[in-house]
Design a protein that fits this description.
Length: 258
Protein backbone atom coordinates (compact mmCIF):
# COMPACT_ATOMS: atom_id res chain seq x y z
CA UNK A 1 0.00 0.00 0.00
CA UNK A 2 1.42 3.37 -1.05
CA UNK A 3 0.33 6.38 1.02
CA UNK A 4 0.67 9.95 -0.18
CA UNK A 5 -0.26 13.11 1.70
CA UNK A 6 -1.13 16.16 -0.35
CA UNK A 7 -0.36 19.22 1.75
CA UNK A 8 0.49 22.88 1.71
CA UNK A 9 -0.07 25.45 4.43
CA UNK A 10 -1.49 27.86 1.91
CA UNK A 11 -5.13 27.49 0.91
CA UNK A 12 -6.48 27.31 -2.62
CA UNK A 13 -3.31 26.01 -4.28
CA UNK A 14 -4.83 22.88 -5.83
CA UNK A 15 -4.49 20.30 -3.04
CA UNK A 16 -7.92 18.74 -3.46
CA UNK A 17 -7.70 18.91 -7.25
CA UNK A 18 -4.31 17.16 -7.17
CA UNK A 19 -5.66 14.49 -4.81
CA UNK A 20 -8.72 13.71 -6.92
CA UNK A 21 -6.80 13.87 -10.21
CA UNK A 22 -4.08 11.44 -9.18
CA UNK A 23 -6.48 9.10 -7.41
CA UNK A 24 -8.92 9.09 -10.34
CA UNK A 25 -6.15 8.10 -12.74
CA UNK A 26 -4.99 5.32 -10.41
CA UNK A 27 -8.53 3.95 -10.10
CA UNK A 28 -8.94 3.92 -13.87
CA UNK A 29 -5.84 1.78 -14.10
CA UNK A 30 -7.43 -0.75 -11.80
CA UNK A 31 -5.71 0.20 -8.55
CA UNK A 32 -7.83 0.21 -5.41
CA UNK A 33 -7.83 3.78 -4.14
CA UNK A 34 -8.83 5.19 -0.77
CA UNK A 35 -9.20 8.95 -0.47
CA UNK A 36 -8.93 10.31 3.05
CA UNK A 37 -10.41 13.72 3.70
CA UNK A 38 -8.96 15.32 6.83
CA UNK A 39 -10.09 18.83 5.95
CA UNK A 40 -13.06 20.00 8.10
CA UNK A 41 -14.28 21.93 5.04
CA UNK A 42 -14.83 18.52 3.47
CA UNK A 43 -14.21 19.61 -0.15
CA UNK A 44 -13.00 16.16 -1.15
CA UNK A 45 -16.01 14.55 0.54
CA UNK A 46 -18.39 16.86 -1.33
CA UNK A 47 -16.49 16.22 -4.55
CA UNK A 48 -17.89 12.69 -4.45
CA UNK A 49 -21.39 13.85 -3.63
CA UNK A 50 -21.20 12.73 -0.02
CA UNK A 51 -23.07 15.08 2.29
CA UNK A 52 -20.71 15.57 5.20
CA UNK A 53 -23.46 16.83 7.52
CA UNK A 54 -25.54 13.68 7.08
CA UNK A 55 -22.78 11.25 8.02
CA UNK A 56 -22.95 9.00 11.06
CA UNK A 57 -19.30 7.93 10.83
CA UNK A 58 -16.31 9.79 9.45
CA UNK A 59 -12.57 10.27 9.82
CA UNK A 60 -13.43 12.09 13.05
CA UNK A 61 -14.62 8.87 14.73
CA UNK A 62 -11.39 7.09 13.84
CA UNK A 63 -9.20 9.84 15.26
CA UNK A 64 -11.37 10.19 18.34
CA UNK A 65 -11.10 6.44 18.98
CA UNK A 66 -7.36 6.90 19.50
CA UNK A 67 -4.34 4.72 18.75
CA UNK A 68 -6.10 1.45 19.61
CA UNK A 69 -8.88 2.02 17.07
CA UNK A 70 -10.28 -1.30 15.79
CA UNK A 71 -10.74 -2.45 12.21
CA UNK A 72 -14.55 -2.31 12.39
CA UNK A 73 -14.50 1.36 13.34
CA UNK A 74 -12.12 2.11 10.49
CA UNK A 75 -14.07 0.16 7.88
CA UNK A 76 -17.40 1.43 9.19
CA UNK A 77 -16.44 5.01 8.41
CA UNK A 78 -15.43 4.35 4.80
CA UNK A 79 -17.91 5.15 2.02
CA UNK A 80 -18.01 3.50 -1.37
CA UNK A 81 -18.54 5.75 -4.38
CA UNK A 82 -20.23 5.11 -7.72
CA UNK A 83 -16.77 4.91 -9.30
CA UNK A 84 -14.98 1.57 -9.56
CA UNK A 85 -12.01 1.27 -7.20
CA UNK A 86 -12.72 4.52 -5.35
CA UNK A 87 -13.60 4.65 -1.66
CA UNK A 88 -13.63 7.72 0.55
CA UNK A 89 -13.01 8.19 4.22
CA UNK A 90 -15.05 11.37 4.57
CA UNK A 91 -14.52 14.49 6.67
CA UNK A 92 -16.97 16.29 8.90
CA UNK A 93 -16.87 19.73 10.52
CA UNK A 94 -16.21 18.03 13.85
CA UNK A 95 -12.61 17.44 12.72
CA UNK A 96 -12.01 21.11 13.49
CA UNK A 97 -12.55 20.40 17.20
CA UNK A 98 -9.95 17.64 17.45
CA UNK A 99 -7.01 19.86 18.33
CA UNK A 100 -8.88 21.22 21.34
CA UNK A 101 -10.21 17.80 22.31
CA UNK A 102 -7.04 15.80 22.11
CA UNK A 103 -4.10 17.87 20.97
CA UNK A 104 -2.25 17.21 24.23
CA UNK A 105 -2.86 13.47 24.59
CA UNK A 106 0.10 11.28 23.83
CA UNK A 107 0.03 8.99 20.82
CA UNK A 108 -2.66 11.10 19.13
CA UNK A 109 -0.45 11.81 16.13
CA UNK A 110 -0.18 8.14 15.24
CA UNK A 111 -3.85 7.17 15.07
CA UNK A 112 -4.20 7.34 11.30
CA UNK A 113 -0.98 5.42 10.74
CA UNK A 114 -2.26 2.64 13.00
CA UNK A 115 -5.69 2.69 11.38
CA UNK A 116 -4.22 2.35 7.88
CA UNK A 117 -2.19 -0.67 8.89
CA UNK A 118 -5.51 -2.42 9.36
CA UNK A 119 -6.43 -1.71 5.72
CA UNK A 120 -3.14 -2.87 4.21
CA UNK A 121 -4.76 -5.66 2.20
CA UNK A 122 -7.74 -3.58 1.06
CA UNK A 123 -6.16 -0.73 -0.94
CA UNK A 124 -3.22 -0.14 -3.27
CA UNK A 125 -3.05 3.64 -2.92
CA UNK A 126 -4.17 5.96 -0.14
CA UNK A 127 -4.28 9.70 -0.82
CA UNK A 128 -4.73 12.06 2.11
CA UNK A 129 -6.05 15.61 1.68
CA UNK A 130 -5.19 17.80 4.69
CA UNK A 131 -6.24 21.29 5.80
CA UNK A 132 -3.72 24.12 5.43
CA UNK A 133 -2.93 24.29 9.16
CA UNK A 134 -0.36 22.60 11.35
CA UNK A 135 -2.27 20.65 13.96
CA UNK A 136 -3.26 17.16 14.96
CA UNK A 137 -4.79 16.45 11.51
CA UNK A 138 -1.65 17.43 9.62
CA UNK A 139 0.53 15.47 12.04
CA UNK A 140 -1.62 12.35 11.61
CA UNK A 141 -1.37 12.61 7.84
CA UNK A 142 2.38 13.14 7.89
CA UNK A 143 2.97 10.30 10.34
CA UNK A 144 1.04 7.96 8.04
CA UNK A 145 2.93 8.61 4.80
CA UNK A 146 6.44 8.53 3.39
CA UNK A 147 5.85 10.98 0.55
CA UNK A 148 4.35 14.44 0.74
CA UNK A 149 3.12 16.01 -2.46
CA UNK A 150 3.10 19.80 -2.15
CA UNK A 151 1.09 21.66 -4.79
CA UNK A 152 2.32 25.23 -5.16
CA UNK A 153 0.45 27.81 -7.16
CA UNK A 154 2.73 29.53 -9.65
CA UNK A 155 2.66 33.02 -8.18
CA UNK A 156 5.16 34.79 -5.96
CA UNK A 157 2.99 34.98 -2.86
CA UNK A 158 2.31 31.26 -2.92
CA UNK A 159 5.99 30.48 -2.57
CA UNK A 160 5.90 31.79 1.02
CA UNK A 161 3.32 29.16 1.96
CA UNK A 162 5.70 26.54 0.63
CA UNK A 163 8.46 27.73 2.95
CA UNK A 164 6.12 27.34 5.91
CA UNK A 165 5.20 23.84 4.77
CA UNK A 166 8.85 22.83 4.46
CA UNK A 167 9.52 24.21 7.96
CA UNK A 168 6.67 22.05 9.24
CA UNK A 169 8.24 19.00 7.62
CA UNK A 170 11.50 19.83 9.38
CA UNK A 171 9.73 20.03 12.74
CA UNK A 172 7.93 16.77 12.12
CA UNK A 173 11.17 15.14 11.06
CA UNK A 174 12.52 15.78 14.53
CA UNK A 175 9.42 14.88 16.53
CA UNK A 176 8.32 11.83 14.52
CA UNK A 177 11.86 10.84 13.57
CA UNK A 178 10.62 10.54 10.01
CA UNK A 179 12.19 12.00 6.90
CA UNK A 180 9.66 12.52 4.14
CA UNK A 181 10.22 12.37 0.43
CA UNK A 182 8.89 15.63 -0.96
CA UNK A 183 7.54 16.34 -4.42
CA UNK A 184 6.70 19.96 -5.12
CA UNK A 185 4.12 20.31 -7.89
CA UNK A 186 3.79 23.68 -9.64
CA UNK A 187 0.07 24.25 -10.24
CA UNK A 188 -2.20 26.70 -12.06
CA UNK A 189 0.62 27.62 -14.40
CA UNK A 190 -0.51 30.33 -16.79
CA UNK A 191 1.85 30.37 -19.72
CA UNK A 192 0.61 33.80 -20.82
CA UNK A 193 1.85 35.57 -17.69
CA UNK A 194 5.36 36.50 -16.74
CA UNK A 195 4.45 36.08 -13.05
CA UNK A 196 3.88 32.36 -13.59
CA UNK A 197 7.21 31.91 -15.34
CA UNK A 198 9.05 33.96 -12.69
CA UNK A 199 7.46 31.94 -9.87
CA UNK A 200 8.32 28.68 -11.60
CA UNK A 201 11.93 29.70 -12.10
CA UNK A 202 12.26 30.83 -8.50
CA UNK A 203 10.76 27.54 -7.32
CA UNK A 204 13.20 25.50 -9.39
CA UNK A 205 16.13 27.61 -8.26
CA UNK A 206 15.31 27.45 -4.54
CA UNK A 207 14.13 23.88 -4.25
CA UNK A 208 15.99 22.11 -7.04
CA UNK A 209 15.34 18.43 -7.38
CA UNK A 210 12.35 18.46 -5.01
CA UNK A 211 10.44 20.26 -7.76
CA UNK A 212 8.70 18.15 -10.39
CA UNK A 213 10.07 19.15 -13.77
CA UNK A 214 6.61 19.52 -15.28
CA UNK A 215 3.74 21.79 -14.31
CA UNK A 216 -0.04 21.69 -14.04
CA UNK A 217 -1.52 24.32 -16.36
CA UNK A 218 -4.54 26.50 -15.63
CA UNK A 219 -7.44 24.51 -17.00
CA UNK A 220 -11.10 25.40 -16.51
CA UNK A 221 -12.00 21.72 -16.97
CA UNK A 222 -11.00 21.12 -13.34
CA UNK A 223 -13.83 23.30 -12.15
CA UNK A 224 -16.24 21.62 -14.56
CA UNK A 225 -15.16 18.16 -13.37
CA UNK A 226 -15.67 19.22 -9.77
CA UNK A 227 -19.16 20.55 -10.57
CA UNK A 228 -19.91 17.20 -12.24
CA UNK A 229 -18.58 15.39 -9.11
CA UNK A 230 -16.34 13.29 -11.33
CA UNK A 231 -12.56 12.81 -11.20
CA UNK A 232 -11.03 14.96 -13.97
CA UNK A 233 -9.65 12.06 -16.02
CA UNK A 234 -13.10 10.43 -16.09
CA UNK A 235 -14.74 13.73 -16.97
CA UNK A 236 -12.44 14.66 -19.82
CA UNK A 237 -9.50 12.36 -20.44
CA UNK A 238 -7.87 14.61 -23.01
CA UNK A 239 -7.92 17.86 -21.01
CA UNK A 240 -4.50 19.54 -20.79
CA UNK A 241 -4.60 19.42 -17.03
CA UNK A 242 -5.35 15.70 -17.01
CA UNK A 243 -2.43 15.02 -19.34
CA UNK A 244 -0.15 16.94 -16.96
CA UNK A 245 -1.36 14.95 -13.94
CA UNK A 246 -0.81 11.73 -15.90
CA UNK A 247 2.83 12.73 -16.39
CA UNK A 248 3.17 13.54 -12.71
CA UNK A 249 1.66 10.18 -11.79
CA UNK A 250 4.15 8.34 -14.00
CA UNK A 251 7.00 9.91 -12.04
CA UNK A 252 5.40 9.22 -8.65
CA UNK A 253 4.72 5.57 -9.52
CA UNK A 254 8.33 5.15 -10.58
CA UNK A 255 9.52 6.59 -7.29
CA UNK A 256 7.06 4.62 -5.13
CA UNK A 257 6.36 1.30 -6.83
CA UNK A 258 3.62 -0.87 -5.31
N1 LIG B 1 -4.86 23.80 -12.59
C1 LIG B 1 -5.99 24.45 -12.32
N2 LIG B 1 -6.55 25.28 -13.24
C2 LIG B 1 -7.69 25.95 -12.98
N3 LIG B 1 -8.38 25.84 -11.85
C3 LIG B 1 -7.89 25.02 -10.88
C4 LIG B 1 -6.68 24.30 -11.08
N4 LIG B 1 -6.44 23.56 -9.95
C5 LIG B 1 -7.45 23.85 -9.10
N5 LIG B 1 -8.33 24.72 -9.66
C6 LIG B 1 -9.53 25.30 -9.05
O1 LIG B 1 -9.10 26.21 -8.05
C7 LIG B 1 -9.90 26.11 -6.87
C8 LIG B 1 -9.01 25.72 -5.68
O2 LIG B 1 -8.46 24.43 -5.92
P1 LIG B 1 -8.47 23.30 -4.81
O3 LIG B 1 -9.78 23.23 -4.13
O4 LIG B 1 -7.94 22.07 -5.42
O5 LIG B 1 -7.39 23.91 -3.81
P2 LIG B 1 -7.07 23.53 -2.29
O6 LIG B 1 -5.62 23.78 -2.10
O7 LIG B 1 -7.57 22.17 -2.00
O8 LIG B 1 -7.94 24.60 -1.50
P3 LIG B 1 -8.30 24.62 0.08
O9 LIG B 1 -7.07 25.10 0.78
O10 LIG B 1 -9.44 25.58 0.14
O11 LIG B 1 -8.65 23.22 0.46
C9 LIG B 1 -10.98 25.08 -7.20
O12 LIG B 1 -12.12 25.76 -7.62
C10 LIG B 1 -10.39 24.26 -8.34
O13 LIG B 1 -11.38 23.75 -9.22
MG1 LIG C 1 -8.89 21.48 -0.49
Amino acid sequence: MVIWTIANQKGGVGKTTTTVSLGGLLAERGHRVLFIDLDPHASLTYYFGIDSEELEQSAFDILLAGPDVDRETVQGAIQHTKFDNIDVLPATMALATLDRKLGGKSGMGLVLRRALRKLRMDYDYVLIDVPPVLGVLMVNALAACRRVIVPVQCETLALKGLDRMLQTLDLVKVSLRQDHQVTIVPTMYDKRTKASLDAYRQLAKQHGNKVWSGMIPIDTKFRDASAAQTPPSMYMAKARGVIAYTQLLTLLMQKDPL
